[in-house]
């Protein structure tokens, strides 16, 4: 089959200039920010509650990873396809459906009777966010123009980032007074208010396209991401290696099928020609690593603080604040660095901060770590994301034609969601493997090893919380069990920090070697813009 012409791929209706902002712009923007806040809070509240959840269900470390990853996985799987459906069939409809679905998903998660139901509810919640969250940015882009759009996106992004950072603190406060389910129920009232405001204030149809949706490509993208993340998680479980191989092979097949489909489709879901531009694909990979590093550091770190350092849930949640503060401080600095030195240098500065953060975790996070060591690591990672995130997002949006702006927006969402799902899964798998390996060696070295049954050893090596529950059953050995569990968790965490450091270093090498320097970056962006104007003009003729 012949490849479709660029005319068919980039064709779009000619839009006429409108007002810079919609009617009742303030309340419309507030509504969109509230909808985004529901997604941001749901994404970040689970990590602080993981130790309590593990204790309640005697959950394995792999199960805890799936609980943490479930929401970002559902969001990452669906964001490209659901965003395309919203562009075609109605953004308001997609927004309302996502917010409405998030309400029962949060309620089921908060009242879940077992780990399986909780993971499923988190996955559905992520799918709901995949309907609503990217649609908020698409609506801002469609409803505002010029400087008003820039200000609106800045407010949307800044408040959204602040809410995501406050998620752990919110969860910590709730867990001081209520059961673990409260962290999932907290967004329900906000979702109801957001739903009612969206019904009342969001316009029914805003610049939707009439181009057909690549449904096959959408389904393939969902399966590709889902199989990939499940394979990573299954690989850390000794009796699930065959399943991991099957899911991994399935992800490879789906990836190949997706590429073939996108090359042949008249209106592809994801334009691989544009994605192949250096300023696009390098920035996309760089963003996945840096945003994933932040979420993975919070995922492992929150468990470390509570399991090893015995922080309260409130203190554990509050420990994230320096990371949020330095992220906010670094973001405007990043904008100035981009103007002066270009995206490449700015991203590398952010990567250096992230690498130092993981190095602090690896070297200074021990059983006797103080507040300074904990806050220093989070501050460095937060500053790294604040520096590296803006140039990665800017490079994405600057590398695509106007007709493919949704592709850049979807990729920007994927940076955080797919990065979080992959990095949390990878570091969680290493945490599981390192913990089990170290505890197994501790049992073998014990004088009472011959008295440890297979069932007891399985419980001890599942997770820290499972070991703590076992210690309650054998009070005469409780001190030894908990001490060994802490040492084993710390060993597994060090495996994770090492992997995070390697990933960040690899990302830094990629940016340094493949992303163009400032002058060349400007030349390429100007070249892409000229090419896209010609193609779009031909399509309109």
Name the quaternary structure: single chain
Report the order of strands and helices.
Answer: HHHHHHHHHHHHHHHHHHHHHH
Report the sheet-strand fraction: under 5%
Radius of gyration: 23 Å
CATH class of the largest domain: Mainly Alpha
CATH names the topology of the largest domain as Growth Hormone, Chain: A
Helical fraction: over 70%
Number of domain units: 3
| CATH superfamily heading of the largest domain | MFS general substrate transporter like domains
| Shape summary | globular
Number of strands: 0
* Secondary-structure-derived class: mainly alpha
Average pLDDT, to the nearest integer?
A: 81
3D structure, described in words:
- This protein is an all-alpha fold and 541 residues long.
- Helix content is 81%, strand content 0%.
- It folds into 3 domains: 19-211, MFS general substrate transporter like domains (Growth Hormone, Chain: A); 214-268; 271-418 and 497-535, MFS general substrate transporter like domains (Growth Hormone, Chain: A).
- The chain has 22 helices and no strands.
- The longest helix is centred in the C-terminal third of the chain and has 41 residues, at 405-445.
- It starts with 5 loop residues before the first helix and ends with a helix.
- Residues 1-17 have low confidence and may be disordered.
